[in-house]
Amino acid sequence: MKKFKFISTVLVAAFVFILSACGTSKTTGGNGGGDEKTLKVVTDAAYAPFEYLDKGKVVGFDVDFTNAVAKEAGIKIKIENVGWDPLFVELDKKTADIGMSAITINDERKQTYDFTRPYFLSTNKILVPKGSDIKSGADLKNNKKVAVQNATTGQEAVEGLLGKNNEKIKKFENNNLAIQELKSGGADAVVADNTVIEQYVKNNPNDNFVVIEDSTAFAQEFYGLMLPKGSKLKADLDKAINTLMENGEYTKIYKKWFKVEPDLTKIPKE
Ligand code: ARG
User: Fold this and answer.
1) What's the CA angle centered on 242, arms 233 and 230, to 5 degrees?
2) Which of 3, 47, 189, 240 could form a cystine bridge with 73, CB 3.0-4.6 A?
3) Residue 123 CB–ligand 1 contact under 6 Å
4) Predicted confidence band at 225 (pLDDT cuts at 50, 70, 90)?
5) Cis peptide before 205 (omega within 30 of 0)
6) What are the tens digits of pLDDT across the range 119-177?
7) Prediction pTM value
8) Topology of the domain covering 9-121+223-266
9) Residue 148: CB within 6 Å of ligand 1?
10) Rounded to whole angstroms, how far apart are CA atoms 92 and 98?
11) Which CATH number fits domain 124-212: 3.30.230.70, 3.90.170.10, 3.40.190.10, 3.40.50.300?
12) Ligand 1 mean position to 55 CA, how many Å?
């Protein structure tokens, strides 16, 4: 009888333990560190082909890339479309673990966040209607209204040309709204990441837009996955990205979305 009581106590204890383990394994946010936790990845899914909504699902190059990185690192992730500005807030408050959003690694952001190693080369370019007299970054200074996504490197670049508080710079919550403004004639140009506006032009020939390149006005940029400052995830994610770049998996994902081979020599390791 005594023995039975002992065994049942052990069983109950084991059951309670398993239950509580199940409970914590579902926790999301704030705790970078591998194991069986599901990590929360936040994004602004209005930036095709990197992240956008297709029948309510977040898809894109970044999605396939980040899923592959997570798999390689042995991490479970859940992607949530929270929007651009909230993404930064979530990482500030550590209510999310990873920011995935074609995010450019720059010194200003590095003061507040950590980044994985770079995974994509980008530069800002200018989207204008065919026949526009805008042929360079400098031309934007000729009294042009320029639409940008708020708090992006595109905004920063345009501020560099037009001055920080110039009211000709029209800021939008996401890049699709900036493009809408150009379509409706409320702006003369959009400045955003080259791949995004190049794809837009290709997919929307009836809009009659063209892309203007200006490598003197716009610097080279590199995307990284963004992490809360001090995140323990960095080492594992970097290692996983390196592996994917070496074993051909990155190239496979890249070719699926861009139909050409990536030039990995152009992406620095750090
Ligand atoms: N690369 C630019 C930046 O980091 C724009 C990124 C915007 N991404 C997005 N998903 N809306 O500022």
Assistant:
1) 20
2) 240
3) no
4) very high
5) no
6) 999 999 999 999 999 999 999 999 999 999 999 999 999 999 999 999 999 999 999 99
7) 0.88
8) D-Maltodextrin-Binding Protein; domain 2 (3.40.190)
9) no
10) 11
11) 3.40.190.10
12) 22
